[in-house]
């Protein structure tokens, strides 16, 4: 299988998540990539955490696409300006809004037009005047620098081809002294080629993932400080998914623990004294 270019990967993500935007959470939970692709069933607990008990939860905004609860770890305060990268139908944005209150502001950025339309419709129904959604590329955000007190993101940055640029943009839009908390999928060891090269699994947050050490090093190289892994859990994909990509021998090796897929929630700060990406190394 040939390697897709960054633009082809972005197009794949846009097409897949346009399909997802038109489905319910229940439909997304019984399809391997969020959009129907004929490769088995993943229980929602494999990737996503339960939002339903959190203050500010909006059922219509929950498409079951996350792999963590970054807003729970993000140290958001009343009055903060929060930017949600890959905001989808608005799930994390609405949770953040319940914390920042009327004095704060939440800005969601998403690559997919249909997701933006769905998020705006949800916000309109709630009559939220301090939550807005903008269509844009996380590698080139439609947002001025030094805007956000906090950046959050949930299982999105692993889908971005140029992760260094995405984190550099997060650095740019944060105020000095600001911080982020992002949940994402990372790898330890080598992911079997059958999974790594699968376009469907890429859009489903697995094959777009990189090594955990590389992921954390990118954050450091951009200029962030006080980097902490706040939560980590192993993702155990069901055999009916794995068998579509792996031979019996490769599946046994994969299950032996020599490699793995993990959801991590990472915190980092834009230090007061730092002048920009790369100056704090």
Question: Please, could you describe this protein's structure?
Answer:
- The chain has 281 residues and is of the alpha/beta class.
- It has a single domain, classed as Vaccinia Virus protein VP39 (Rossmann fold, 3-Layer(aba) Sandwich).
- 34% of the residues lie in helices and 21% in strands.
- It has eleven helices and seven strands.
- The protein has a seven-stranded mixed beta sheet.
- It starts with 5 loop residues before the first helix and ends in a 12-residue tail after the last strand.
- The relative contact order is 0.15.
Quick summary of this structure?
With 281 residues, the protein is α/β, with parallel strands linked by helices. 34% of the residues lie in helices and 21% in strands.
Question: How are the secondary structure elements laid out?
Answer:
Elements: H1 6-21, H2 25-29, H3 70-73, E1 81-85, H4 91-100, E2 105-110, H5 113-126, E3 131-135, E4 148-154, H6 163-173, E5 174-188, H7 193-196, H8 199-203, H9 212-222, E6 225-234, H10 239-242, H11 248-258, E7 260-269
Parallel strand pairs: 1-2, 1-4, 2-3, 4-5
Antiparallel strand pairs: 5-7, 6-7
Give the tags:
281 residues, alpha/beta, Rossmann fold, 7 strands, disordered C terminus
User: Low-confidence stretches at least 5 residues in length (pLDDT < 50)?
Assistant: 29-45, 273-281
CATH architecture classification: 3-Layer(aba) Sandwich
Total strand segments: 7
CATH class categorisation: Alpha Beta
Strand order across the largest sheet: 3-2-1-4-5-7-6
At CATH level 3, the topology is: Rossmann fold
Number of domains: 1
Average pLDDT for all residues: 82
Shape: globular
| Order of helical and strand elements | HHHEHEHEEHEHHHEHHE
Task: Report the portion of residues in β strands.
Answer: 15-25%
Task: Outline the biggest β-sheet.
Answer: 7 strands, mixed
Distance between the termini: 38 Å
Helix content: 25-40%
CATH superfamily assignment? Answer: Vaccinia Virus protein VP39
Oligomer: single chain
Secondary structural class: alpha/beta
